[in-house]
């Protein structure tokens, strides 16, 4: 099983999780172009991805989502409230007259019919059905047509699947357990991934205001743990953020400080992981060395040094793939 962190931080998050048979991308928080570039750099084949999973609708987790999903033609897994919040976010807030709205709905219908015609891909049928012009145009450059639909409906995706935090689901040979996280989004979650064939467990837990009991128990028996270590408390307090933003980050629905992460590692963490990757570090209110030192000290206090290698995920470049 493999985890490749393509990017981590408030400017974009994305991670590949791969088992023997299944590959998923968790979050798509960089532009499609940048995500494809990062995958190339990290030797991850975008064409091999089976699905995209979304933790929550904040832009640093979804910036490239619609374009990437349409390009790769793979389904996107959300919780229903997260999907709804994302659609609302993607829909331009224009005021339309009733006539304009009717026109818009009609155009959408036509575009959908054109897409359906291509999906049922029988050229003869297309000719007979009278949608020959549209079908031919799409056949010529299907991607352009897809993007044309996207312009009218920026939230259109190849397929949407819903999961519920707290209820496990499967994609191929991966079992995925989404768990609710305390964060200021519609229905935020983290994920535990388990491969049936390899009995390895990997987890992603970032964007957490604090460590509630359900997250602490979800993070037991994890072999590779991507864990938030967002800010240094003093740097945040003395730093340049406006008061309201400082309050948000510090709140119980904001982000984990180095201290809070260390407290979890020292008190509640079971010492099981081969690798702990610190992620979602603030570029303004943290220093990588501080986060690393704080986590390493916390683990040292546990007296279990076997395994437990602490690594730092980066904002600007992928972290080398971790395979177990
Ligand atoms: Zn985030
Ligand atoms: Zn967030």
CATH class of the largest domain: Alpha Beta
The low-confidence runs, each spanning 5 or more residues with pLDDT under 50, are 122-132
User: Which architecture of the largest domain does the CATH hierarchy give at level 2?
Assistant: 4-Layer Sandwich
Count of individual domains: 2
How does the major sheet shape up? 7 strands, mixed
What order do the helices and strands follow? Answer: EEEHEHHEHHHHHEEEEEHEHHHEHEE
Q: How many strand segments?
A: 14
Helical proportion?
A: 25-40%
* Structural Rg: 22 Å
End-to-end C-alpha gap = 5 Å
Helices and strands: which structural class? alpha/beta
Strand order of the largest sheet: 6-5-4-3-2-1-14
**What general outline do the C-alpha atoms trace?**
globular
CATH topology tier name of the largest domain: Metallo-beta-lactamase, Chain A
Average pLDDT confidence is 90
Ligands present: zinc ion
Could you walk me through the main structural features you see in this protein, from its secondary elements to its overall organization?
- The chain has 13 helices and 14 strands.
- It has two domains: about 1-90 and about 160-324, Ribonuclease Z/Hydroxyacylglutathione hydrolase-like (Metallo-beta-lactamase, Chain A, 4-Layer Sandwich); about 100-150, no CATH class.
- It has helices at about 30-40, 60, 65-70, 80-90, 100-120, 125-130, 130-140, 140-150, 215-220, 235-240, 245-250, 260-265, 290-300; strands spanning about 1-5, 15-20, 25, 50-55, 75-80, 160-165, 170, 175-180, 190-195, 200-205, 225-230, 275-280, 310, 320-324.
- Helix 5 packs across helix 7 and helix 5 runs antiparallel to helix 8.
- The protein starts with a strand and ends with a strand.
- It has a seven-stranded mixed β-sheet. Strands 7-8-9-10-11-12-13 form a seven-stranded mixed β-sheet.
- Helices cover about 40% and strands about 20% of the residues.
- With about 325 residues, it is an alpha/beta fold.
- One zinc ion binds near residues 56, 183, 185 and 207.
- One zinc ion binds near residues 58, 183, 185 and 207.
């Amino acid at each position: 099983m493999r985890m490749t962190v393509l990017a981590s931080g408030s400017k974009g998050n994305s991670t590949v999780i791969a088992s023997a048979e299944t590959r998923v991308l968790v979050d798509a928080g960089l532009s499609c172009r940048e995500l494809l570039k990062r995958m190339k750099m990290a030797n991850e084949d975008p064409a091999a991805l089976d699905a995209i999973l979304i933790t929550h609708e904040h832009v640093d987790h979804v910036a490239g989502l619609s374009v990437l999903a349409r390009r790769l033609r793979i389904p996107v897994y959300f919780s229903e409230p997260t999907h709804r919040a994302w659609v609302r976010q993607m829909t331009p807030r224009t005021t339309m007259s009733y006539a304009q709205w009717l026109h818009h709905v009609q155009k959408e219908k036509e575009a959908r019919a054109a897409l359906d015609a291509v999906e049922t891909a029988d050229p003869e049928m297309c000719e007979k059905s009278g949608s020959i012009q549209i079908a031919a145009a799409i056949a010529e450059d299907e991607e352009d047509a897809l993007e044309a639909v996207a312009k009218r409906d920026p939230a259109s995706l190849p397929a949407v699947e819903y999961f519920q935090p707290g209820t496990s689901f499967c994609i191929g040979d991966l079992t995925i357990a989404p768990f609710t996280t305390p964060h200021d989004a519609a229905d935020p979650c983290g994920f535990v991934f388990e491969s049936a064939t390899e009995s390895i467990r990997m987890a992603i837990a970032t964007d957490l205001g604090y460590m509630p009991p359900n997250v602490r128990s979800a993070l037991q028996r994890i072999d590779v743990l991507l864990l938030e270590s967002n800010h240094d408390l003093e740097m945040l307090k003395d730093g340049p953020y406006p008061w309201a933003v400082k309050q948000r980050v510090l709140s119980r629905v904001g982000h984990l400080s180095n201290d809070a992460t260390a407290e979890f590692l020292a008190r509640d963490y079971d010492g099981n992981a081969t690798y702990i990757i610190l992620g979602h570090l603030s570029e303004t209110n943290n220093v990588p060395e501080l986060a690393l030192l704080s986590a390493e000290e916390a683990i040292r206090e546990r007296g279990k040094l076997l395994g437990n290698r602490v690594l730092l995920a980066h904002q600007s470049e992928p972290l080398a793939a971790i395979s177990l």
